[in-house]
Design goal:
Domain Orn/DAP/Arg decarboxylase 2 C-terminal: 275-372
Protein name: Staphyloferrin B biosynthesis decarboxylase SbnH
InterPro entries: Ala_racemase/Decarboxylase_C, De-COase2_C, De-COase2_N, Orn/DAP/Arg_de-COase, Orn_de-COase, PLP-binding_barrel
Keywords: Plasmid, Pyridoxal phosphate
Number of domains: 2
Strand content: 25-35%
Number of helices: 11
Domain Orn/DAP/Arg decarboxylase 2 N-terminal: 30-274
């Protein structure tokens, strides 16, 4: 697997010439190859759904449609995005808390395959909506498992959170199902950790979750058809040469899945989309204030919020440009720590903090790697009403001259 890193020549060929550079550039060929590799590693009986919250652009969805089992959505709006991009043939499953009657109606209207229920109240609400439509909703019960879970960047279970039904209340939830004739139980949803970097500990979690799902089903005499183990296959932004060991996870699962085992589903977003895009932004000003060096971009966290949201050092490269069209001297920083900020009227708009750089000048480009997931889609695009970045999608024939970083 390689992290996409387009050359200066590619960037300048693609972007508009009448404005400073600000663009997301996606390599769809790399996305295709990477996704096929992830899917092919899975053992029989396991499926990979793409969580479109990571990047819901229609070009991404259409590229992935022939590869993944289907798409995981978290809102009625995402259902519509998937249907508009791919059509009625795409398999869709829906998760997420704080569901409403409108959401369940959309599930029925758009023929969503299955919905994950996160509370006892929502069991009643889903049943009422299905009854009003003379329909039956296939469901999974999302359980917030008790006890510690493997370390990860984000933990959504094993501790108090707004996600899922407390494992201590699962007996009540199963009893509630008995009075909800318009719901059809098919299994459990056990998405607990996100961005786990260690495949061995993630396999431990998956096997324990699968075991608990079987025990709950056996205790209540339930037909366990599906266990959704969520996502959580991590991307290490600090070490882009360290890739989550999908083969390790798949091997551990392969040993545990016997004939007659429930269908295993994963719903991954970040690991599918992150590696195959960059966010590149031009330095439009430099300055020194109170002894600290700053570089200001034509862009910022309203385009690419991930570094500030996660408070991490995002991987990047500086691309130097020699062309200078102005009559006055070109300003820049040399051999110092530079804080790289955006164009917003807030000191929170920081993408790199006190980064040691040998040289960074007005007109140079800062290219953030691994920007294909949770970048544009989680950013506050219209704060201050600045121009949106260009969003460019490269088919295979256009990437031959690009530099790639082996990981």
């Amino acid at each position: 697997m390689t992290a996409f890193a387009p050359s200066l020549e590619t960037i300048e060929h693609l972007v508009s010439r009448d404005r400073p550079v600000s663009a997301f550039i996606h390599d769809l060929d790399a996305l295709d190859r990477h996704a096929r590799g992830l899917v092919s590693a899975l053992p029989p009986g396991a499926e990979l759904f793409y969580a479109i919250k990571a990047n819901s652009d229609p070009a991404i969805l259409r590229t992935l449609a022939p590869i993944v089992a289907g798409f995981e959505v978290a809102s009625a709006g995402e259902i519509r995005k998937a249907r508009e991009a791919i059509g009625v043939g795409a398999r869709i499953i829906m998760g997420g808390p704080a569901r409403t009657a409108t959401d369940f109606a959309a599930v029925i209207d758009h023929m969503v395959e299955r919905v994950h229920i996160e509370s006892i109240h929502l069991l009643h609400l889903a049943n009422a909506v299905a009854e009003s439509r003379n329909a039956t909703l296939p469901i999974l019960l999302r359980v917030n498992l008790s006890g510690p879970v493997p370390g990860a960047t984000i933990t959504m279970g094993g501790q108090p959170t707004q996600f899922g039904i407390d494992e201590a209340e699962i007996d009540e939830a199963v009893a509630t199902l008995a009075v909800c004739p318009h719901l059809r139980f098919e299994g459990f949803h056990l998405h607990t950790v996100s961005n786990n970097l260690d495949a061995e500990t993630h396999a431990d979690f998956c096997l324990e979750a699968l075991s608990r799902a079987r025990r709950i089903a056996d205790r209540h005499g339930l037909d366990l058809r599906v266990v959704n183990l969520g996502g959580g296959w991590g991307v290490d932004y600090a070490r882009i040469d360290s890739l989550f060991d999908v083969d390790c996870l798949a091997g551990r699962l392969r040993d545990a899945l016997e004939p007659g085992s429930p269908q295993i589903q994963f719903e991954c977003g970040r690991i599918v989309a992150a590696y195959c895009a960059v966010y590149v932004s031009e330095v439009v000003d430099v300055k020194t204030n109170h002894g600290e060096a700053f570089a200001l971009l034509r862009g910022g966290s309203h385009h690419f919020r991930l570094p500030s949201a996660w408070r991490h050092r995002h991987p990047f490269v500086v691309i130097n440009r020699e062309n200078w069209i102005w009559k006055w001297p070109r300003r820049g920083h040399t051999d110092c720590r530079v804080t790289v900020t955006g164009e917003l009227c807030t000191p929170k708009d920081v993408l790199l903090e006190a980064e040691p750089l040998s040289a960074l000048r007005i007109g140079d480009l800062v290219c953030f790697l691994l920007a294909g997931a949770y970048g544009w889609d989680i950013s506050h695009h219209d704060f201050l009403s600045n121009a949106h970045p260009e969003r460019i999608f490269l088919p295979a024939r256009q990437v031959g001259a690009d530099k790639e970083m082996n990981i």
